[in-house]
């Protein structure tokens, strides 16, 4: 087997192993007691719906693959925070800060907001 073919085979095997390791779950049991999320539009699950901003994703085509339709996620379905929560064993989605109430807050809250940033000029044109 040529060197290039060997390297390609090794890369493919490693990619398969890494891919399989990311979808495994430990007996479906919740791995952590709570999950707090901070970030921008990559993780926002609807917080911007309740904010006075032009940065919103609560209309089609956003959420086209989500069971309930557009939710404010800047994606066509679940985002990486939703997938991570599922892999950590959470049965339900982590609620957005705008909608979290009562004991629901004890399992975690998503504080992410589209257009968020740490610099003063972040989002000034929004």
Automatic annotation (TrEMBL):
<protein>
    <recommendedName>
        <fullName>SGNH hydrolase-type esterase domain-containing protein</fullName>
    </recommendedName>
</protein>
<dbReference type="Pfam" id="PF00657">
    <property type="entry name" value="Lipase_GDSL"/>
</dbReference>
<dbReference type="GO" id="GO:0016788">
    <property type="term" value="F:hydrolase activity, acting on ester bonds"/>
</dbReference>
<comment type="similarity">
    <text>Belongs to the 'GDSL' lipolytic enzyme family.</text>
</comment>
<keyword id="KW-0732">Signal</keyword>
<dbReference type="GO" id="GO:0016042">
    <property type="term" value="P:lipid catabolic process"/>
</dbReference>
<keyword id="KW-0443">Lipid metabolism</keyword>
<feature type="signal peptide">
    <location>
        <begin position="1"/>
        <end position="28"/>
    </location>
</feature>
<dbReference type="InterPro" id="IPR036514">
    <property type="entry name" value="SGNH_hydro_sf"/>
</dbReference>
<dbReference type="GO" id="GO:0005576">
    <property type="term" value="C:extracellular region"/>
</dbReference>
<keyword id="KW-0964">Secreted</keyword>
<keyword id="KW-0378">Hydrolase</keyword>
<dbReference type="InterPro" id="IPR051238">
    <property type="entry name" value="GDSL_esterase/lipase"/>
</dbReference>
<dbReference type="InterPro" id="IPR001087">
    <property type="entry name" value="GDSL"/>
</dbReference>
<keyword id="KW-0442">Lipid degradation</keyword>
């Amino acid at each position: 087997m040529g060197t290039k073919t060997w390297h390609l085979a090794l890369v493919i095997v490693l990619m398969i192993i890494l891919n399989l390791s990311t979808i495994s779950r430990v007996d479906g049991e919740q791995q952590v007691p709570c999950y707090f999320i901070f970030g921008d539009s990559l993780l926002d699950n609807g917080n911007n719906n309740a904010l006075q901003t032009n940065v919103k994703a609560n209309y089609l085509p956003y959420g086209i693959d989500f069971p309930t339709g557009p939710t404010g996620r800047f994606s066509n379905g679940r985002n990486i925070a939703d997938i991570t929560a599922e892999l950590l064993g959470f049965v339900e989605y982590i609620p957005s800060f705008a909608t979290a109430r009562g004991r629901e807050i004890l399992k975690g809250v998503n504080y992410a907001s589209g257009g968020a940033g740490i610099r003063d000029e972040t989002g000034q044109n929004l």
